[in-house]
Amino acid sequence: MPQVPPGRARRLRSTVRDRRTRRAGYTRLGIHDLVSEAVTGLIQRPARSVLTMLGTVLGVGVFVAVLALTTTVTHQIGKSFDLLQATTVTVTDTPTKAPKTALVPGEEPRTGFPSDTDARLARLNGVVDGGLWWTVPLRSPAIGTKPAGSTTAPDRRGGGIGLYAATPGALAAMQPTVRSGVLFNSFHQERGEQVCLLGSAAARLLGITRVDSRPAVFVENTAYTVVGIIAETQRLPESLLGVIIPAGTALTAYGPPNDRPAQAVVHVRLGAAPLIADQAPRALRPDQPQLLKAAAPPDPRYLRDQVSTDLSGLFLLLAAICLAVGALGIANTTLVAVLERTGEIGLRRALGARPSHIGVQFLTESTALGTLGGLIGTSLGVLSVIAIAVAKRWTAVIEPATVLPAPLIGGLVGLVAGCYPALRAARIEPLETLRR
User: Fold this and answer.
1) Under a CB-based contact definition with an 8 Å cutoff, are residues 70 and 314 in contact?
2) Rounded to two decimals, what is the model's pTM?
3) How many CA atoms within 13 Å lie on the side-chain side of 144?
4) How buried is 405 (Cβ within 10 angstroms: 0-12 exposed, 13-18 middle, 19+ buried)?
5) Do residues 228 and 197 lie in contact, with contact meaning Cβ atoms separated by under 8 Å?
6) CA 87/CA 83 separation, integer angstroms
7) 3-state class of 326 per DSSP?
8) Per residue in 347-404, pLDDT tens?
């Protein structure tokens, strides 16, 4: 008896097995066939496939962009917090109710702060700069470039401009950027000189851009010579819309700040804030430290976690809505495809396809559609995060745990969305379709 080659024997056994399967009414559908049919179905209707994927692309793209942007922004907030907020300590006065009168030179102010606040803060280990400041309440808030009632020249008055008193130490702690002129110093402070600084917003309202001509600002008809204009500050940003005068001048002209408590702003080295907050009241008022209340910055980890939670919760809701819209789009398109391909489904059933084969085929198409949309959305999300980081000069922080599962989410959305259309396709009877 002739020997049959092994390869031909396998083919013969496969042919016999397939014939037996067809006789029993069953067919085999492999993974390659499923993928081939799904790709063919998507390619045959490219416009519909693109429009169907749009919801999934937006949903997955927003999902990736939100998580990556939240991580990036949280990282930036952490850096800014460490550099600014974690190096700031505020000491607040709790003054006693004393009559508000002007002081004579050399008289001790009736506040919780001593007259040498700047020097006492500077002696603390870990303090870079520190000083006293407060808001000066005006009886008639009229700040302009001319005395009230003057008609000799046009008068520019700034509505909403405040008057602030500050010591040289407080100015240094603010870390101001001087646009024009100089800051006042201890000489002006001790002599009670009538000089002032203008914040950038106040200078713009008053129309003062330079100080080389020695312009003056009138506060309640009292002239203060402008010695400098501040462009920006790291601390006390409210001073940019205000006039800042020396604390000694304010005490002489307006008395101690009984209505609005004074504050000491302290610029400390990184990591020294809790220690300085504990030591500052006793260093400033060893006799009655309870008159002062020091506030250290909050834990930066709590702030970062809170910001991350708020941003993630808000934008992930938007991503979920986009994914839901994408799922509805895939379900609707797949259902329409089932209705359009009823004759094809009936013919396949008549040739031996089982209901499960039909259902799996449509599930494969919807899953492939969702996965492709997830891949495109992931790419767009990553590119958008990189573009925003480059525009803002940030460091893009994209974690692999955010990017890698994103296409799988798109595939899962497509799988879930295709369940009902696939079930409906599997229930189509071939006899009814062939009669049409």
Assistant:
1) no
2) 0.53
3) 16
4) middle
5) yes
6) 7
7) helix
8) 777 777 778 777 887 888 888 888 888 899 899 989 988 998 888 887 888 888 878 8
The helix/strand count (H/E) of the chain reads as 16, 11
**pLDDT digit string, tens, across residues 166-215:** 999 999 999 999 999 999 999 999 998 999 999 999 999 888 988 988 89
Given the DSSP bridges, would you call strands 88-93 and 292-295 parallel, antiparallel or unpaired?
A: antiparallel
Token digits for 397? 């922080």
Instruction: Provide the CB-side half-sphere exposure for 54 (13 A, CA).
Output: 8
Q: Tokens 């001048």 correspond to what residue? A: 249
Retrieve residue 147's tokens. Answer: 């005395």
Distance CA 348, CA 260 (A): 86
Q: Judging by beta carbons within 10 Å of its beta carbon (0-12, 13-18, 19+), is residue 435 exposed, middle or buried?
A: exposed
Gap between the Cα atoms of 60 and 327, Å rounded: 11
Element (H, E) at 162: strand 162-166
Q: Is 93 exposed, middle or buried (0-12, 13-18, 19+ CB in 10 A)?
A: buried
At 230, list the tokens: 């501040």
Per DSSP, 235 falls in state S
Length of the chain equals 436
Dihedral through CA 104, CA 108, CA 110, CA 112, nearest 10? 150
Tokens 């102010």 identify what position? 109
Reduce the DSSP state of residue 268 to 3 states and report it: strand
